[in-house]
Structure formats: structure tokens, C-alpha cells
Amino acid sequence: MKIAVKANIEDFDKIMNVDCEVIGNTSRRDYIENAIELGHCIISKNEDDIEGFLIYDINFFECSFITLIIVSPSKRRKGNASLLIDYMMSISPTTKVFSSTNRSNSSMQKVFDANGFIESGIVENLDEGDPEIIYFKSK
């Protein structure tokens, strides 16, 4: 059965395996470890397998901001991102939750739309020629 829970440090290596599978390196190692230690990392797991993870912070105008949603390529389109978002909404320390994705990332835009997020703005000049769309949802 697939569940979402807060990650603990024992999950770190499996989370890193998923992240490395997606981005091809371990450059976010310290960032992920810090998020776990702060209690800001949520995992989607099926039995002992971690299929995806979400990281958030509360530094975006004192609102929760989902900074990263990563799902193993072989586990995509199976409800993992939605499960992570639902759990995040249930535990969010703020009533307003924001996130973002590039205009070119239509798959993530569909995930946000399917989970009740609305577009809240655009930030230019982060990635050349690929604006960042900000999304918002209230608890």
C-alpha cells in the first residue's frame, strides 16, 4: 500500500537514490539531508520502496513553498506527486501553499492543476527563455 509520511534520516540513502536517478548526480545531498533534519521532507513509499519525495520550506513571505517534488521515472503517473501534495496540504504549517515550475514543464503544470493549485504569477529571468510559473493553493 502506498503512503506518504515525513522522512527520517534512515530514509536518506533511498531518497538520494531517487534524486540521483532523476538528476544524474548527488549535488543536492546537503540540501536534502537538511530538509529531513528540519522535518521538511515528505516521502511517498510503497512497502519499503521510496517512490518519490517532496521538500518544502516556510521562507516565502512566511508561507509554505514546495521547493521540490521528485518522483522516480518508473513510478510516475501513478499518483505519487498527488499523494505527496495531499500530505503536504494536510501538515502545512501555513494556510497558504505556493510552488512553481518552468513554463516548459507541462507535466508538472498538469499535476498542479489536478491538485487544485491556481496560477499566481510568473517570474522571468531564472532560466533563460523559460519563465517560472508560480502556483498557489489555500488549505
UniProtKB/TrEMBL annotation:
Residues 3-139 form the N-acetyltransferase domain. It holds the Pfam family Acetyltransf_1. The keyword Transmembrane helix does not apply. Keywords: Transferase. The keyword Transferase applies. It comes from the Bacteria. GO terms for molecular function: acyltransferase activity, transferring groups other than amino-acyl groups. This is GNAT family N-acetyltransferase. The lineage of its organism: Bacteria, Bacillati, Bacillota, Bacilli, Bacillales.
